[in-house]
Amino acid sequence: MTLISFVVPAFRVQGYLRECLDSILGQPETDIEVIAVDDCSPDASGDIIDEYAARDQRVHSVRLPENVGLGPARNIGLDRAVGEYVWFLDGDDWLAPECLTEVAERLRGTRPDVLLVDHVRTHWNNTATRSAMAEVFPESPGADTFRLRDRPQAMHLLHTAWNRLVRREFLVELGLRFAPGWYEDVSFSYPVLMAARRIGVLDRVCVNYRQRRAGAITRTRGDRHFEVFPQWHRVFHLMDSWGPATEALRPAVFERMIWHYLTVLGNGQRIAPELREAFFAQIAADYERWLPPGGYPVPDGVEGIKHKLVAAGRWRTFSALRAASRARDAARRRARTARRKVGPVTRRGARFTRDRLLREYYRAELRRPVDPTLAVYAAYWYRGYSCNPAAIYEVARRLAPGVRGVWIVRRDRVDAVPAGVEYVVAGTPAYYRVLARARWLVNNVNFPDFVRKRPEQVHVQTHHGTPVKVMGLDQQRYPIGAGRMDFAGLLRRVDRWDYSVSANSFSTQMWDRAYPATYTTLEVGYPRNDRLVTAGPDEVRRLRAEFGLDPDEQVVLYAPTHREHLPGYRPPFDPDQFVQALGGSGRLLMRSHYFHDRDRRPGQPRDWERVRDVSGHQRVEDLYLVADVLVTDYSSAMFDYAVLDRPIVLYTPDWEAYRLARGVYFDVTAEPPGAVASTFADLLDLFRTDAVRSDAAVKAREHFRARFCTMDDGRAAERVVRQVFLGEPGERSAHC
Fold it and tell me: Has UniProt tagged this entry with the keyword Lyase (predicted)?
């Protein structure tokens, strides 16, 4: 018999599900199965599950035809489980490395009905908070098992399904199921403990309980939080049906119920102000209904006062107490903030007088009406006219002629703006004016921190590449690559987004976890790649002629990415040796990352006739179109170039160091878009032998394109314009 059946329900967890499944499947203990249940999720969760099931026979995919909710989805997984124990793990949480070895040893050694394990709350800012395990059990219980009546303090551990493993036959005999609705853990976790004859505790952190910044029920306001009441009613009805066997536990269970109710009420992110009095009234009603005849252990201090106010039904006094507490906490926060600001304000002095005057002008412009016809575009920190914003701008001029588009550019990039394109120079009064009054703000990076998005404004974040390296909040786990990144500031900027343009499902999944906020995802393909689809042979011939390239020459574009953790790094690449390996008809175009725009020359070749530095060329799409082969490393260029269905070579001399220091979302050397070379000698051999076009390379490219390029059909920019500028509904998936 399989030892552990993991039941993993999935609904809107596409950004986290891979980490969850990897954490299970990568454990040393392999006597497991995973029943992953797609609860008709509107995102790519179901596709991710199918992908894992296809490559690992321990994973079983269940796709539900309609959304049933977390509790019923767990029941469906339970019905399919065959393991001796069942572990209900949520799709956005993950296991600690190697924890399953100790879990399995304890299960095999003691055969408990329930095994409680420890967890940490892992927050979006990469901090972790320990559970109450050490407080509940100051001395480790060891391997001994017990009944709840002997150690009722076990109820003070968090009442979730995922911090306990339950013997499957015991659960089936008990007939306990998850109830529908929110707070479904309550009516499962407490009854399981009350009914168990053998409870074990493993004081080893096994679960990382993700505290999501956006999308979690605990951060969702609404009246559905009233569903906590029937869940607790179910607990007491079960106790009544079980009779004297659980009567001694009633006072402790009652105390937990009131504690939980007050916790929900005290969370301002759950209960809206207009619902608070009604919620309190229901607490008071349940207090009177379920109060044990002999009373219960009332907590000390402020918590005890709250319990007494509930018992008396004194809402006004309870509300006033809460308001006073919140005012005191707010005053303390303001005092701390004021102390932090004194130093920096004093140091800035008068050096930024002009900037302050311009910011005052900006604030004045914010009080003027938004221009309903104005759209502002920017790319790469105002480096010029390019990328996804440029593609959207061009389509908007055609489909939404009533929208006036204005670009923001640096003063040293004014000459790169095409004729007929209106622009303002960054830092000028006109710059502040358009930022304050534009109806639409379109950028492939974030606007500066001072920009305040008004309610009438629409911010479109287009991004500028499918991510190989980790981005956003995920960089917190790789401090070497992240440098001194201000993650709190990043999230303030992300909160301005209304739309996030995604090139493919994989990008959508990664953006969900890297940039958690309430924006709407436009999974439409990359607008800048439209041109790669629509450009015909005549345009390619014209571009090659402009670059001075003969039609029969083999043109290779070398475009490595930069290394944030290694300033000035250049891969070991000799242009002269490379063009010799290409043969007499080969030409090499070299393009450094845009971060190196003040340090252009990536090499110093002797043969400048056959090698050209094209780093300063504004439109990278031109370079893709003229190139017969792309050589890159971890750059998002590979995803764009794959649209053309031409050979791609990955040159990865520092893959292991890059992966460990910078962090990556997937192993591009294992799932490449073509041939792979880890040394320069290997790279030369690939071209000398024409292995860049081998059957294996072609098959790898086909698989890569099927995964990443299906949305690039030449209409991505049109889809953005129609939905964002014209208000037309987006194209919907047929799933669910």
Answer: no
8 Å CB contact between 520 and 461: no
3-state SS assignment for residue 564: coil
Confidence of residue 336 (pLDDT cuts 50, 70, 90): low
In a domain, 341, yes or no: no
Helix residue spans in 438-502 (DSSP H): 479-482, 487-494
Residue 105: CB atoms within 10 Å: 13
Say whether both 276 and 405 belong to one domain: no
Same domain for 244 and 212: no
Enclosing domain of residue 17: 4-216
Q: What is the pTM of this model?
A: 0.82
Distance CA 658, CA 719 (A): 36
Domain boundary residue, one of 468, 501, 525 = 525
Report yes or no on 678 lying in a domain. Answer: yes
Q: Which residues of 704-723 are buried (b: 16+ CB within 10 A; e: fewer)?
A: bbebbbebbbebbbbbbbbb
Reduce the DSSP state of residue 441 to 3 states and report it: strand
Q: Which residues, other chains included, contact 648 with Cβ-Cβ below 8 Å and sequence gap of 6+?
A: 629, 630, 631, 632, 638, 641, 642, 672, 673, 674, 701, 704
Question: Distances in Å between the alpha carbon of 337 and those of 198, 331, 332, 451?
Answer: 51, 10, 9, 21
Among the residue ranges 120-134, 395-409, 602-616, 719-733, the one predicted with the least confidence is 602-616
559 shares a domain with 437:
no
Antiparallel, parallel or unpaired: β 32-38 and 59-63: parallel
Could you give the CA distance from residue 510 to residue 467 in angstroms, rounded to a whole number?
8
Q: What is the DSSP string of 571-631?
A: -S--HHHHHHHH-TTEEEEE---GGGTTS--S---S-TTTEEE-TT-S-HHHHHHH-SEEE
DSSP string, 274-335: HHHHHHHHHHHHHHHHH--TT---PPSHHHHHHHHHHHHT-HHHHHHHHHHHHHHHHHHHHH
Whether 247 and 189 share a structural domain = no
Check pLDDT > 80 for residue 376.
Answer: yes
Residue 451 · residue 496 · CB < 8 Å: yes
CB 378 within 8 A of CB 407: yes
Instruction: Specify the CATH number for the domain of residue 430.
Output: 3.40.50.11820
If you ran DSSP here, which 8-state letter would residue 394 be given? H
* Exposure letters 658-689 (e unless 16+ CB within 10 A, then b): bbebbbbbeebbeebbbbbbeebebbbebbee
The DSSP letter of residue 33 is E
- 199 and 87, same structural domain? yes
Residues 90 and 121 grouped into a single domain: yes
- My answer on whether 30 and 101 are in the same domain is yes
| Per-residue pLDDT at 356 | 83
Please give the C-alpha separations between residue 88 and each of 13, 25, 92, 192, 532, in angstroms, as whole numbers.
15, 15, 12, 13, 46
Same domain, 205 and 129: yes
The label of the residue with tokens 């009613």 reads 233
CA nearest 99: which of 82, 83, 114, 119?
119
Whether 418 maps to a domain, the answer reads yes
The number of domains in the chain is 4
